[in-house]
Amino acid sequence: MKNDIISDLEQRYTAKRYDSSKRIPKDELETLYRAIQLSPSSINSQPWKFIVIESDAAKERMHNTFINKHQFNQRHIKEASHIILFAHNPRYTRDDYAQVVDQGIADGRTAPENRELAFGGFSFAALNTLENGDTSAWTKAQTYLALGNTLHVLARLGIDSTTMEGVDSELISKEFQQELDGYQCDVALAIGYHHQDEDYNTALPKSRLPLKTILTVL
Ligand SMILES: Cc1cc2nc3c(=O)[nH]c(=O)nc-3n(C[C@H](O)[C@H](O)[C@H](O)COP(=O)(O)O)c2cc1C
Fold it and tell me: Which residues form the Nitroreductase domain (predicted)?
């Protein structure tokens, strides 16, 4: 079984060192941003924000969030081409969903007279909201769908990446308070091109559990 999809996914891997002289071309970044925007989510809720760390000044700010922990990921911040913060809305409300509904009207999916009806889907968000208004478990899951989609698109584009749950969410919340606007970043993604000699992970074979232990066809 070999096709383009499988070879993309076999070739993608988690980069451990980046070539700091290489930067992702603008047109590929635009493809990536559009792919991120097209990520699916439950009830089309899109309870996410993506903060792209591109400038040296922004990289410095992100670099500083590693002072307490996860230093093993820190060097990617300055060496990789870009870092994307994947952030979720921890308190998704009906007002947030109103933006989705109104966008659906603007995009011609929903007739304006059916606006109230379109809120029906929100019951699913309500089901996933704790008594205290916390929606994190559900909204964070949506954000990981965008992450998975992004990883696949990067593989297609031949861009290397490092997913990093090894980030300091608290310090990121403080440092990027204004940009995050109450959203929570628990995972970030370094993207760029691996270092030719110093990325030990390029030479290692892919390792996954046998298909028969993870997949059942009934
Ligand atoms: C949600 C998630 C969080 C991860 N966090 C880190 C991390 O903080 N640092 C790191 O070097 N790799 C991290 N990884 C990389 C995984 O270890 C890696 O994807 C896994 O071992 C499979 O290897 P592959 O990506 O090379 O196929 C993370 C991956 C995922 C999906």
Answer: 10-193
